Amino acid sequence: MSFYGSFALVTPAGLLQLLCQEQRSVVITARGDKSQACILLCEGLIIGGSCDAFQGPEAIYRFVTWRDGVFRVDPLAEQPTESEMAAPVEELLLEAARRRDEFALM
Amino acid sequence: MFINWGLGELNLKIVYYGPALSGKTTNLQYIHARTPPHMRGRLISLKTQQERTLLFDFLQLEMGKVHNLKPKFKLYTVPGQVYYAASRKLILQGTDGVVFVVDSQAGRLADNQESWYTMEQHLVELGHDLSTFPIIVQYNKRDMPHVLSVSELKRQLAVDGRPQFEAAAARGAGVFDTLKAAMNAVIGQVKTAIR
Ligand SMILES: Nc1nc2c(ncn2[C@@H]2O[C@H](COP(=O)(O)OP(=O)(O)OP(=O)(O)O)[C@@H](O)[C@H]2O)c(=O)[nH]1
Ligand SMILES: [Mg+2]
């Protein structure tokens, strides 16, 4: 069973926080204007991500700036034995906000 | 903590916890009365006819900026009466810091201890590390006769290194010192989260 939606109704940041707060283990696949992303969550932590050519935290920083697109959430098939990261969503979002500021200053 | 990316808001939650009638609601009422309207929301109180908190009081405050996000503090109180244990735990969910309001009166020592103990239990169950989680202690009702000395309360509650303030919330003494310490502690935690 999957869960589908549009970023017109919930922001990428809101979606990530909702799923993490519920300690879900899921895969988010998302399609934006010209972009694609895939984010892995395991028991409320972000354990991996890709957004176009970017991987890991960098992928999340890009993904949360999307203004439109659609997503699909599926259960995480199996827990990877090794993950590229294990970060609380708040930490990544705060860093993304800091980068957004610095980018605005340039 | 909840980050509203669209609105650029950082939502932070502080819960006023403590035994029945220790003055939790009184703290929020004073903060509400003394904060300029453009910086705060409405004070929402769910209470019984006897003015006892039924589920919670809620007040929202706005502050400067952190990482270009606008912090909005959501202040909640819990109902202190013993039989509302499930509500207290629910309200503690997702909280970024706690103000523990002590009733300084000598006869209330056991109630303070019981309340402190259950608060720690709930916080641990919610996955917090007590050694780093922000808890501010307020010794309230200092204006009443027959209060225990602060050093005695400190010893009995084993609150060790935490920030502590004396207060008489009914006339506002100590209310904002406590609040500022709680806000600073919570913001401090946010800042360590990204280092
Ligand atoms: N003298 C004195 N009375 C106080 C002080 N703080 C609160 N009170 C009084 O104590 C009573 C209880 O205060 P509340 O703020 O309703 O207590 P509470 O902790 O919210 O109680 P519950 O909602 O039942 O848990 C009220 O009559 C207050 O006016 C204080 O510092 N000094
Ligand atoms: Mg109350």
Account of the 3D structure:
- The complex is a heterodimer of chains A (106) and B (195).
- By secondary structure, chain A is an alpha+beta fold.
- Helix content of chain A is 33%, strand content 30%.
- In chain A, strand 2 and strand 3 form a beta hairpin.
- Chain A has one domain (3-105).
- The longest helix of chain A is centred in the last third of the chain and has 17 residues, at 89-105.
- With 195 residues, chain B is an alpha/beta fold.
- In chain B, strands 1, 2, 3, 4, 5, 6, 7 and 8 form an eight-stranded mixed β-sheet that branches.
- The chains are: A alpha+beta (106), B alpha/beta (195).
- The interface between A and B is medium-sized, with 18 and 15 residues.
- The site of magnesium ion has 4 residues of chain B, from helix 1.
Notable traits:
heterodimer, A: 106 residues, alpha+beta, 6 strands, B: 195 residues, alpha/beta, Rossmann fold, eight-stranded mixed β-sheet, binds guanosine-5'-triphosphate
Fold blueprint:
The complex is a heterodimer of chains A (106) and B (195).
Chain A (H helix, E strand, L loop, with lengths): L2 E4 L5 H10 L4 E6 L4 E7 L2 E7 L2 E2 H8 L6 E6 L13 H17 L1
Antiparallel strand pairs in A: 1-6, 2-3, 2-6, 3-4, 4-5
Chain B lengths: L1 E3 L4 E9 L6 H11 L9 E4 L5 E10 L7 E8 L7 H8 L4 E7 L5 H17 L9 E6 L9 H8 L6 E3 L8 H19 L2
Parallel strand pairs in B: 2-5, 2-6, 6-7, 7-8
Antiparallel strand pairs in B: 1-2, 3-4, 4-5
Magnesium ion (MG) binds next to helix 1 of chain B.
Low-confidence stretches of chain A: none
Shape label of chain B: globular
Radius of gyration of chain A: 13 Å
Structural class of chain B: alpha/beta
Q: How many angstroms separate the termini of chain B?
A: 17 Å
Number of strands of chain B: 8
Q: Pair with the most extensive interface?
A: A-B, 18 and 15 residues
